[in-house]
Amino acid sequence: MSVPRAVVCLPTYNERENLEAMVRALGEVLDTSRDGVLVIDDGSPDGTGDMADGLAGELPWVSVLHRSEKEGIGPAYVAGFRHLLGGDTELLLEMDCDFSHDPRDVPRLIEAAGEADLVLGSRYVADGGTANWGLLRRVISRGGCLYAQVLLGVRVRDLTGGFKCFRRETLEAIDLDALSAHGYAFQIETTYRVLRAGLRVQEIPIRFTERRAGASKMTSAIVLEAIWKVPLLRLRALLGRL
C-alpha cells in the first residue's frame, strides 16, 4: 500500500526569526523523500520570503508561494491549498510557523488521517492543553470555542485551532470558493463545512505553547470577525445556503 504524500502549509508574515528553525524541525519528522513543506509568504517586509527562497534552494522538499500582500490567514491557506491540489499532494496540513504547534506532533496528525477526513490538533480534549498563557488568553480562547460549539450545534471541542490535516478529497468536497473568513474564523468555517458535508472529523490532543519569537497576529478585528461569522454560518446552514 502506498503511503500518502503530505505537505505542511506554513503561512508567514514577518516570521524570519522562526522560519528556518521550523523548516529544519519539520525535516526531522517528515519523510522528505515524499513529504514536503510549502511556505506561503504574504510579502513579509522583514525578508521572510527571501529566507524561504534560500531554504527552498537548499532543500528540495521545500517550496515557496509568494503573495503580494497580507490578506489574512484564510486567503493564504486557500492559495496554498489551490497550489497543492494542482499536484499530487494527498494530505494537506495547516500549522503555525512560530512553534505554537510542536513539529513532533505532525506524524500523529498524518497517521490519524488514515481514519478521518479531517484531523484536528486539539487543546480541549483529554490530554490536550496550553502552556505559557495568561488567564485572559485562556478565557478568550476557551470561550470562543464554546461560543462556536453552542451556536453551530457541533461536538468538536477545539473549533478555533489551526493545527489540522485535511485529506485531499475533503478540501475538494467543501468548495474553496465558498470560504470567506480572513482571520481565525477561517478555522471555524472550514471545520464546520467539513462536518456539514457529512465527513469524519477526529480530534487528537496537542499541547499549544506561546510563540517563541516575533509578534502575535491576533487583533480585535480578528476576534470580531469570528463573533459575527459564527451565527452567519449557522443561518446559512439552516437556509441551505452554506
Can you give a write-up of this model?
This protein has 242 residues and is α/β, with parallel strands linked by helices. It has a single domain, classed as Spore Coat Polysaccharide Biosynthesis Protein SpsA, Chain A (Alpha-Beta Complex). It has eight helices and nine strands. The strands form two sheets. It has a seven-stranded mixed β-sheet, with helices on both faces. Helix 1 (16-29) links the parallel strand 1 and strand 2. The longest helix has 19 residues, at 220-238.
Strand content: 15-25%
The CATH class label is Alpha Beta
The number of strands is: 9
What is the CATH topology assignment? Answer: Spore Coat Polysaccharide Biosynthesis Protein SpsA, Chain A
The number of domains is: 1
CATH homologous superfamily descriptor? Spore Coat Polysaccharide Biosynthesis Protein SpsA, Chain A
Rounded Rg: 17 Å
Separation of the first and last Cα atoms: 36 Å
Number of helical stretches of at least 4 residues: 8
The share of residues in helices is 40-55%
State the shape.
Answer: globular
Mean pLDDT: 92
The chain-level structural class is: alpha/beta
Q: Helix-strand pattern, N to C?
A: EHEHEHEHEEHEHHEEH
If classified by CATH, what would the architecture be?
Alpha-Beta Complex
Spatially, the strands of the biggest sheet line up as: 3-2-1-4-7-5-8
